[in-house]
Amino acid sequence: MTKTCFRWLLAAWLACTLTTAAHAQAKAEEPMAKDMREEIQHVSVTVKDMYRRQETRQIPVTIFRPAGDGPFPLVIMNHGRAPGEKRALQGRQRYEALSRYLVSKGFVVLVPTRVGYGETYDDFDPEYSGDCNARRLEPMSVAASDQVLATLEFAKTLPYVNASRWLVMGQSVGGLTAVTIVWRHPPGLVGAINFAGGVGGNPDKSPGHPCSPQEVARIWRSNAASGGAVPMLWLYWENDLYWGPDNPKRWAEAWVSGGGQAEMHTLAAAGSDGHGAMAFDMDHWVPFAEAFLAKLGFTRPGVIARPASTAFAKVDEVDKVPVSAMVRDGPYRKFLDAKPPKAFAIGPKGASGYAMGDWVMGKALGFCQRRGEPCKLYAVDDEVVWVP
Predict the structure, then answer these.
(1) Cβ contact 234:262 at 8 Å
(2) Interatomic CA distance for residues 312 and 250, integer angstroms
(3) Listed residue (161, 137, 146, 66) closest to 105, CA to CA
(4) What is the pLDDT of residue 29?
(5) Domains of the chain as residue ranges with CATH
(6) In what order do the strands lie in the sheet with 383-384?
(7) CA dist 54 to 50, 80, 223, Å?
(8) With left for phi above 0 and alpha for psi between -120 and 50, is residue 373 left, alpha or beta?
(9) How far is CA 45 from the centre of its chain?
(10) CA atoms of 236 and 230, how far apart (whole Å)
(11) How far apart are CA 175 and CA 103, in angstroms?
């Protein structure tokens, strides 16, 4: 049996055995964000894998957008790639906290879940790039970026989207996809953000030592010149267990030496693995994004200012919180027991939300507003900031 046939049979077996788990993942999805008018559309894409097998599939695209008719500038955000069989468990991609930040700045955000993930997981994997020490990155880069371009064409049909000024962003393999879009340089692209982009990492088996890192450098160096006019922000974390601290620096050097633009920042270690820190280190990366986007003309602030404390109540005066007894005795007491940083938000019709740790004000407001109520912060850390 050839290696190709074996891989096909193995992928088919995994697709069958992991279907139940994938459905369980889908059922556990967080509620739709009504305040951002979240919706799901399906877009037809045609892609080839490294063996030149071609398939046409319908992929789900999550849409978030601001209030109003627009047209609004566009961001297409791209997801990463879990190792091996874990891909079957990658459900529909949303990036709600990141999307809230971008929507607050006036962007429509489209998040495609590419072929081979979630509901399209099966034996066809257009992003398979070969054995560890013999990677072929061009086919996977083209396949992933073709789906971004198909999403862009779909976005052009939406009356509330201004596709003449748009950005591409991505995390991990999604970051690699964003770099690929830059070198393909489609019309209207004005900038890109690469969050921990790359390919070939496995934090369990070889932390900090990805497969064929020199191949990433080669393909980016050889294609950088064609996207040299597009500014990019590259954000990596010191404790990235997929790439380690040095490979991203070599990749950025390769991109720039090839003629591309890359404003690179290596952020301090975050959590146990900085590879996914885009989701839990917003307090530290958002200021870089704010400055980068302002240079491109997107100056609406996305950082939430902390309100001043008020004399409405002391934070531990539970009976004064203008919510139901159930919320006071449940979520609010949990908020009180939490350590700072933390925030609690309330809405006029009974909604509430609280968050701890990173980006607390934005996340608390987001959790509160998911049902569509316009919420306000009630307390931040140990101070009440609510104005009746």
Answers:
(1) yes
(2) 54
(3) 66
(4) 65
(5) 3-295 (3.40.50.1820), 318-384 (no CATH)
(6) 352-356, 342-346, 376-380, 383-384
(7) 10, 22, 24
(8) beta
(9) 21
(10) 19
(11) 20
First to last CA, the chain: 72
Our CA angle for 227, 232, 233, nearest 5°, is 160
Query: How far apart are the C-alpha atoms of 42 and 193, rounded to whole Å?
Result: 25
What is the pLDDT, as a whole number, of residue 24?
A: 38
**Distance between CA atoms of residues 314 and 65, nearest Å:** 36
Pseudo-torsion of CA 142, 147, 150, 152, nearest 10°? -100
**Which residue positions in the chain have pLDDT lower than 50?**
1-27
Q: Check if the beta carbon of residue 180 is closer than 8 Å to that of residue 144.
A: yes
How much is the pLDDT for 28? 55
**Cβ-contact 327, 353 below 8 angstroms:** no
Q: Quote the longest CA-to-CA distance of the chain.
A: 76
How far apart are alpha carbons 265 and 280 in whole angstroms? 17
Question: CB of 242 within 8 A of CB of 83?
Answer: no
Tokens read off for 107: 């962007």
pLDDT score at 82 = 83
| pLDDT value of position 10 | 39
Helix (H) or strand (E) holding 75: strand 72-78
Q: What is the DSSP letter of 222?
A: H
Q: CA 34, CA 31: separation in Å to the nearest integer?
A: 9
Positive/negative CA dihedral, 344, 346, 350, 352 = negative
pLDDT 10s digits, 272-298: 999 999 999 999 999 999 999 999 999
Q: What pLDDT score does 4 carry?
A: 41
Choose among 367, 362, 334, 335: nearest CA to 352. Answer: 367
pTM for the whole structure: 0.91
Residue type, 59: I
Q: Are 235 and 265 in contact (CB under 8 A)?
A: yes
Find out whether 103 and 196 touch, Cβ atoms under 8 Å: no
Q: Give CA–CA dist 60/79, Å, rounded.
A: 13
Query: Token pair for residue 373?
Result: 């109520």
- List, in order, residues 6 or more apart from 190 with CB less than 8 Å away: 165, 166, 167, 230, 231, 296
